[in-house]
Each structure stands twice: as structure tokens, then as C-alpha cells.
Amino acid sequence: MSVSLASEAHCVKALAAKDFSSGAHPIWCPGCGDYGVLAALERALAAYGRPSHEVVLVSGIGCSSRLPAYTNCYGFHGVHGRALAVATGLKLTRPDLEVITVGGDGDGYSIGGNHFIHACRRNVDMLYLVMDNRVYGMTKGQPSPTTEPDWDSDIAPGGIGLRPLNPLALAIVAGANFVARGFAGDPQGLADLIVEGIAWPGFAFIEVLSPCVMFRPEQGEWKKMVRPAAMPAAPDRAAATAQVLAEDGFNLGVLYRGDRAPVSVPVPTNASMSEIERQFEIGA
Fold first, then answer.
1. Which burial class, exposed, middle or buried, applies to 94 when counting CB atoms under 10 A from its CB (0-12, 13-18, 19+)?
2. In terms of Cα–Cα distance, which of 244, 167, 242, 235 is closest to 206?
3. Which of 55, 91, 117, 213 is the most buried (most CB within 10 A)?
4. What is the model's pTM?
């Protein structure tokens, strides 16, 4: 679905990015990439055209998981690593709402890694936006699942020596229907990806390179390293996985579009609680 079609489907009046701002001042560190992600999300929601009361942002724990408080959409700030579980249950019970999960690489790929795999497998129609800075910022710079093996820090002198997780390859293999990478330093390009991810049927996953200039100041160089992917999104999972594994992690754009049908959403029932309880009664 194109941006214009999405807008025609949902918009009753023209919306602006400011319509999705709560007015609360973010408390991220100066220069944090998450500011760019917030700006991109507000632009994307305005372009997509659903009013804020029809959008729910679900997050876990971490710097990026504060994002729901800075919008005037409905929000749920959950516990560490469980944001996708909450979002899945919400979307299945309220399919009329636009459900977007936001978080970081620690919350999403470490304690939340199991939920990430099965959210891709289930293919529920929602968006997962992960701000990846390859470090735990809120806990003062410990390595995350995507940290380079030789990154030296006070917590891990000399580096952890472990091969970093490739979340995009994992998402494609596990069954995600839309996989892309954006950059916090390009809010408009990221907004376009978010709109496409929301509109694409099934589980959409967007990894956002979001620099942590406080604990990873060298990530300020990412703006010189990112570039549009040289090849179009691969037509099948095997080819897409091979492409993602072969590149250096700085290709931007849509890397895979699948054609799996989203998991069927149960039709809401108007049954009373007593009628629902009777369905679970064990016969004598």
C-alpha cells in the first residue's frame, strides 16, 4: 500500500507531525540518535494518516523505550524484553488499532530475543522498530548482542570476543514479512520506511542505526558510512538472507518483502463474560 493510499484509507483530516507529539521534553543525551527516530516516527504517522487515538506504542526497558511518553498516542511501557509479547496480545485482541513496538538492541535481542524470533514466526500484522546502538546506554556502556567483538570498554576490557548477532538475517529466516534498515540521521528516509512497514501486511521489522554518542562516540562517523543498498530487495528468503550476511551492516532501505499472509485475527465477540466462561467449562 502506498503512502497516499494509506492516507486515503484512514485520514479524516490532514495530519502534521506535531499532532503526534506529547509536548514532553525527551531526556535523552544531547546528540542521541533516538531524537531522529522520534522525529521520523511522528512524520510517518502523520503521512500514514491514522489519528493518534488509533495508534498504540509498546516498549520495554532502555533509553529508546522511553519513546512512547514523547508521543500523544496510546502507550504501554512494559518490562524488560517483553514488549513484543504485550504488543502481540494487544493486536490480536484489538485488530482495529495500529500497534507499533519500539525498543533497543539490548531489550529486543538479549532478554527479548526469544520473543523476537517468535514474533517474526507468527507474522502478526504490526511493526517492530529497534534502535540499535550496539551498547546498553542506560546501564552505562555494557556490550549488547550487536556489539563488535573487539570493542574495548571498562566493563569488557579488550572486547567480549563474541560474534555479534545479525538481527536482520535472523528476522528473515524466522519469518518476518518486511525487513528494512534505516538511519536516525536521515529522519525523512526513515519515515518513508516506517510508512511502508506499517502498510505492508504481516510482521514488519526495521532496524535503525541510532548512534549513542555518549558511550560510543565513534558512531558519529556512521553518517559517512551509511548508503542506500546497491541491490533491490531480494525476491526470496534465501537470497535476502545471503545479501544481508554479505554486507557490512550499513546498507539502508528495504532488504526483504515477503508474501506470507498475516496470522488470522479472531473476530471480536460481543459475548458476555459468563458466555465466554462456559466455553471453557469441563464437562462432568
1. middle
2. 167
3. 91
4. 0.89
Range of the domain at 60: 3-278
Angle 163-115-88 from CA coordinates, rounded to 5°: 145
- Number of structural domains (the chain) is 1
Cα–chain-centroid distance for residue 93?
Answer: 20
- In a domain, residue 284? The reply is no
Distances in Å between the Cα of 113 and the Cα atoms of 41, 73, 80, 118, 134 are 23, 26, 11, 9, 15
Length, in residues, of the chain: 284
Within-domain flag for 283: no
Output the DSSP codes for 216-274.
-GGGGGHHHH-EE-SSPPBSSHHHHHHHHHHS-S-EEEEEEE--PPPPPPPPP----HH
Q: Chunked in runs of 10, what are the mean pLDDT values of the chain (284 residues)?
A: 45 81 93 96 97 96 92 91 94 95 94 94 97 88 90 89 95 98 97 98 98 94 95 91 96 96 74 79 70
CA 30 – CA 137 distance, rounded (Å):
13
Confirm if 60 and 79 have CB atoms less than 8 A apart.
yes
CATH of the domain at 49: 3.40.50.970
